[in-house]
Amino acid sequence: MSAIFKTLSLNICTIFCLVILSACSDNSAQQTVIHKAVAMESSDECHLCGMLITHFDGPKGEVFRKEQGDKVFKFCSTRDMFSYYLDPENTRNISQMLVHDMSKMPWGSNSIDDTYFIDAKNAWYVVGSEKTGAMGKTLASFSLQTDAQAFATEFGGTVLSFKEVNQDSLW
After folding, report:
1. Averaged pLDDT of the chain
2. Do the Cβ atoms of 35 and 70 come closer than 8 Å?
3. Could you state, in order of their start, the residue ranges of all structural domains in the chain?
4. How far apart are alpha carbons 5 and 13 in whole angstroms?
5. For residue 82, pLDDT beyond 60
């Protein structure tokens, strides 16, 4: 009887320790808030330059800041979004960024389809193409590197990953 009691006590202690360890573990990946794109309305102004966002072709951007919950900052171009993001004061406070997948929402349509937003940090960008956005030169954004390369082949420019985009890429 004492052997069964010792085994049962050991199992209960093991389960208790596992519960405590799992409660103390870092679950930050599970706590990451994933925001959905917020519709671009005709009255929306770019957070950086103040231009009306829907009046211009090209990819747009949205930024969510950590300390401001669900508040979205909208940008008339990926260039303005990156100008904002690359400011060191902003970089560390951003929880999520979204950009349009231009393989699904091509230039010239002059309409914005909010269903084609993708995670900016996983996107591929073409800098230096002949296509322009609201503020002139912009970064064409794509979900697939092959689509970005095809765009660069047709319209010029260089393909960069999110991590490769810097201030020099914007001009």
Report:
1. 81
2. yes
3. 35-165
4. 12
5. yes
